[in-house]
Amino acid sequence: MAGYAAAGEVERRPAPRAGRLEVDGPSELVQMDCFRVGRLRGTQGVVWQYTAIDVGSAYTWAELHVAPHNPAARYASDLPRRVAGDLKRFGWELGAVLTDNGNEFRARAFRATVASLGAEHRFIRRGRPQTNGCVERVHGTILEECRKPALAQYLVPGFLGLRRDLERYLRYYNEDRARTGRWTRGRTPMEVIGANKMWSGR
C-alpha cells in the first residue's frame, strides 16, 4: 500500500538520559544520529532523518533523505558541513562530533568531511546509546511533537509534506521555544548560539 508504512514501523527507541556532558559553550560538541522514518508515498526506498544537536545550545538540525535501505554516508557527510557553516556564521568553530558506530559514520567520506572541518570525530562506546543522549532525546521530541501530528492530519503522508513540516517545526524549536536546561537556562537555542554574534556586534 502506498504511503506511510504503518504506525508500527516507526522505530521507537527509548530516549536514554544524556548524563553529564561537560561543555563550556556552543560548538564544542555536536551529537549526530539517524532515525528511520519509513516508506512514504512518492519515494523509492526508506526515508531517514539525519539529525545533529549542539550540546551547548540545544540548537538542532534535521533533514529527511531517501536511501535504498540503510542511512547513506553521503547524506550523513553533508550534515557536518551544514552544521559547521551555520556555527561559523554565528562566530563559533565546530569542535567535535559525537556519533554511534553506524556504517554511515564509520564511512571514509564522513570521517574525511569531519577532518576537513578541523573537528574531532568521537564515537560512543558500543552498547552505550545514552552517551549520545541529547540527540536521542531530540529524536523523540521531533517524533512526538512534529511527525505524529503530521501523520495524523495527512490521509496519505508524502515525503515533501513531512519535510516541510520538519523545517517549520525546527524554526519553532530553535527560535521560539525556550529551554530550561543546564546550558540554555530559559533561553531559546537561537539566543544561546547567537550570543557570540550579538555581543561581538556591539
Detail the topology: elements first, then pairings.
Elements: E1 30-38, E2 46-54, E3 60-67, H1 73-89, E4 96-99, H2 103-106, H3 108-116, E5 120-123, H4 133-153, H5 159-175, H6 189-193, H7 195-200
Parallel strand pairs: 1-4, 4-5
Antiparallel strand pairs: 1-2, 2-3
Task: Write up what this structure looks like.
There is one protein chain. The protein is globular. It is of the alpha/beta class and 202 residues long. The chain has helices at 73-89, 103-106, 108-116, 133-153, 159-175, 189-193, 195-200; strands at residues 30-38, 46-54, 60-67, 96-99, 120-123. The N and C termini lie far apart (57 Å). It has a 5-stranded mixed sheet, sandwiched between helices. Mean pLDDT is 84; it is low at 1-19 and 198-202. Helices cover 39% and strands 17% of the residues.
